Structures are given as C-alpha cells and as structure tokens.
Amino acid sequence: MQIIGISGRSGSGKTSLIREIRNNFSISDVCILSLDNYYRNREDQEKDELGYYNFDLITSFEWDRVVADIKQLMSGLVLRQKQYVFNNEEQAAILTYHPAQVLIIEGIFVLAEPRIWDLLDYSIIIDADINICRSRRLARDVKERNYDRKEILHRFDNHVLPSFQSLIEPLKSKVDEVLINEGKLDKVRKILIERVMTFLT
C-alpha cells in the first residue's frame, strides 16, 4: 500500500478535488481517509475568547485513532467508523473503508502530525487565494454547518488562518508538491489523478 497525504487551506477546493479522485478510481485502487472524521468530541474542544469552539488546532483531533486506523488498513483489514457531523450528530452515518493499493489521507492538518508524515510516500498541499477561500468557507458553513455569517468569518480569520500559517505554510518547502487552485479545477484535477495513477501497479 502506497500512502499519499493531501493537505490544503480551508476553501482551497480540496474537498472537490478529493471527490474527483473518488469518482475516477475504484475502491480496490484507492481508499480515502478524511481527517474530518477524527475530531475530538465537541465538549473536549477549546473555546476562544468569544466562546466559539476552535476546531482548527492540532489538538482538535484524535491522532492516536488516526494512526491506529491507518495501520489497520495497511494490514489489510476493513475499517468502519462513525462519520463526524458538525451540528447534526443525529445524522451521522457508519462509514466503511476497504484496503486498497493507494491510501489517501486528506485534511488540513494531516501533514502537521509527525506520525502521519513518517508514513507517507508522497505529500501534497493544495492552496488558493485567501479571499477565494474565505468566500467558499462562508458558503459551505452557512449551508452545511448552520453557522451564522459573523461566526463563520470570525472562525476563518481567527482560527483557520493563524493555524494554517503556523502549521502548514512552513511545510510548503518540504512537501513533494504544492498545487495552486486558481479557480478552475481541471488543471489541478488532472495533475492529482496522474499522481495517483503513478502509484497503481
């Protein structure tokens, strides 16, 4: 099993690109594990000075469980986990993952955890203009997470940006590839699919 880590600024288009990869490869070729399903319980998250939960800290995730699940897939065993759903816990589904030739671990902070970094065969950061990212984050969180506009913009400027700048920006010089999403996904999608194909036997 070859392991690819894909990070990206919130709103960079990473989720759409991951969806494209999923649509282009079978489950025996590619397994995609999302860091979004490894958040600690809401009551265990830190709050900022305004009382908002900050999900954009390296401590926001259950890293031991992430590592254990990766190793379970590497050993050839099927993995099942409960989906983490923001503000709609009753809608959580049970997700099933099958071992595959390529395992993609995706999430903003996957490259910032040393134990994950050490398992990777290839690392990618997807980035985009900050203003574009802010607009996409606003649209997503209004629709999917039921947050109001003020809270979303506060989280982006005070949680998302500082964490990305301190934890992910320094890794741009260390990763195998940095892809810039200029608004049209076609070019970046083509590159990502080509990279995955090189790891398939």
Which key phrases capture this entry?
Rossmann fold, five-stranded parallel beta sheet, alpha/beta, 201 residues, globular, single chain
Structure description:
With 201 residues, the chain is α/β, with parallel strands linked by helices. It has one domain (2-198): P-loop containing nucleotide triphosphate hydrolases (Rossmann fold, 3-Layer(aba) Sandwich), CATH 3.40.50. It has six helices and seven strands; from the N terminus they run βαβαβββαβααβα. It has a five-stranded parallel sheet, with helices on one face. Strands 3-4 form a two-stranded antiparallel sheet. Helix 1 (14-24) packs across helix 6 (185-198) and helix 4 (130-144) crosses helix 5 (149-168). The mean pLDDT is 90.
Spatially, the strands of the biggest sheet line up as 2-5-1-6-7
What is the CATH H-level superfamily?
Answer: P-loop containing nucleotide triphosphate hydrolases
Note the main sheet: 5 strands, parallel
What's the count of strands?
7
Mean pLDDT: 90
Task: Find the CATH topology.
Answer: Rossmann fold
Q: Assign the CATH architecture.
A: 3-Layer(aba) Sandwich
What's the SSE pattern? EHEHEEEHEHHEH
What fraction of the residues are assigned to beta strands by DSSP?
Answer: 15-25%
CATH class: Alpha Beta
Percent range of helical residues: 25-40%
User: How many angstroms separate the termini?
Assistant: 10 Å
The tally of helices reads 6
Principal-axes shape call? globular
Q: Calculate Rg over CA atoms.
A: 16 Å
Q: Name the structural class.
A: alpha/beta
